[in-house]
Amino acid sequence: MGDGTALSALVAAIRDLRGPKQAEVRPVPEGPALYLCCAEEAGRATGMYRHLMQRESVLPYASDPGNGARLWEASENLVAQTREHRVESTVKPTGDPP
Fold first, then answer.
1. Is the pTM of this model over 0.70?
2. Is residue 63 part of a domain?
């Protein structure tokens, strides 16, 4: 069951429920979520990375703690800038227009 056969059957069944037109137009975005909920491997493994539903090795730069810290800091800065921008845009000028 770890080969994804059961998951493929489940995803195919969901596509059938949607009808042929919707199945052709829309991909099944819930495939990865269904896998993580149902696959035995997902319940036993940590730090698993999957790309296009295939297990892949995590590249060294992706698991580097220093890169993670820099990404976190950059994200905090972006959030702070967004919040500052929202505050500035809600402040109404006082006085008469020029």
1. no
2. yes
